[in-house]
């Protein structure tokens, strides 16, 4: 009899515990539903005030053009600059040139110029120092019909017309690549190093390999023109440059939508 009484008490205790858990879960669910309903449809006369600490995000996403002081990047009408490129400060992208996805041109210390029908390909970083150790201009100058391969790093260097800079190359302060020259992929041009006209250089540090043939020099501008023609295909994917976004902002403000 004693064991039967203990078993009955144990069964009764477990039953009450399970009922208590079920009751608490039901009450919690009902409270959550009421909170959701109250948050979705506030009562009349109740005004929701926005917190002053809320971050004001720019609805246009990443800023492509970054003015610094009095300097504003300039892009020619027929130049192609990918949407996720960053241009800051003294940057000029001239006619027919193209700057491809992920590149960063930072002209905060000195001027950067991308010449006519030249191209700076994906993930390149172009910068300019205050001054050059060689006494040459510290600005970064990429002249006409120049192809700069992907993942290159250019800093205060000068690239004369009709040159090819292979991908993953590094050109350091004061370096000079003369016209009709090619720097092979993965090469490093030390500060103040000069590549004479019509030569092929390669290595780390870059060294002379051989003279270019006349046929090879004729193919250099053709590559730049081909990339320029390819960039024109991308223009079809974007709206023409205009100030329509100002009308959108005005309409959003008139309807009380925060920008």
Shape: elongated
First-last Cα distance: 78 Å
* Share in β-strands: 15-25%
Helix content: 25-40%
Oligomer: single chain
Number of separate helices: 3
Radius of gyration: 32 Å
Structure write-up:
Strands 1, 2, 4, 6, 8, 9, 11, 12, 14, 15, 17 and 18 form a twelve-stranded parallel β-sheet that branches. An eight-stranded mixed β-sheet has the order 3-5-7-10-13-16-19-20. It is built from three helices and 20 strands. The chain has 259 residues and is of the alpha/beta class. Helices cover 28% and strands 24% of the residues. The radius of gyration is 32 Å and the shape is elongated. The chain starts with a helix and ends in a 5-residue tail after the last helix.
Gist?
This protein is an alpha/beta fold and 259 residues long. The chain contains three helices and 20 strands.
How do the helices and strands line up, and which of them pair or pack?
Layout lengths: L1 H39 L24 E2 L7 E2 L4 E2 L4 E8 L4 E2 L4 E11 L4 E2 L4 E3 L12 E3 L4 E2 L4 E3 L2 E2 L4 E2 L4 E2 L4 E2 L4 E2 L4 E2 L4 E2 L3 E4 L4 E5 L2 H22 L8 H11 L5
Parallel strand pairs: 1-4, 2-4, 3-5, 4-6, 5-7, 6-8, 6-9, 7-10, 8-11, 9-12, 10-13, 11-14, 12-15, 13-16, 14-17, 15-18, 16-19
Antiparallel strand pairs: 19-20
């Amino acid at each position: 009899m004693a064991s039967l009484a203990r078993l009955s008490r144990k069964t009764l205790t477990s039953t009450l515990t399970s009922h208590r858990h079920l009751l608490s879960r039901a009450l919690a669910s009902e409270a959550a539903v009421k909170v959701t309903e109250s948050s979705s449809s506030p009562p009349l006369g109740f005004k929701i005030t926005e917190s002053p600490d809320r971050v004001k995000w720019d609805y246009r996403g990443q800023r492509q053009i970054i003015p610094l002081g009095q300097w504003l990047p300039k892009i020619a009408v027929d130049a192609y600059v990918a949407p996720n490129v960053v241009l800051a400060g003294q940057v000029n992208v001239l006619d027919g040139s193209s700057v491809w996805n992920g590149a960063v041109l930072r002209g905060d210390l000195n001027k950067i110029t991308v010449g006519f029908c030249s191209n700076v390909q994906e993930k390149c970083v172009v910068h300019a120092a205050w001054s050059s150790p060689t006494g040459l201009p510290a600005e970064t100058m990429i002249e006409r019909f120049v192809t700069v391969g992907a993942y290159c790093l250019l800093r205060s260097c000068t690239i004369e017309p009709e040159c090819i800079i292979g991908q993953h190359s590094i050109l350091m302060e004061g370096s000079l690549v003369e016209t009709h020259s090619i720097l092979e992929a993965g090469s490093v041009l030390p500060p103040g190093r000069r590549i004479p006209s019509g030569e092929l250089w390669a290595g780390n540090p870059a060294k002379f390999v051989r003279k270019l043939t006349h046929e090879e020099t004729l193919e250099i501008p053709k590559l730049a023109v081909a990339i320029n023609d390819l960039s024109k295909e991308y223009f079809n994917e974007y709206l023409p440059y205009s100030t329509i976004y100002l009308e959108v902002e005005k309409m959003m403000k008139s309807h009380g939508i925060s920008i």
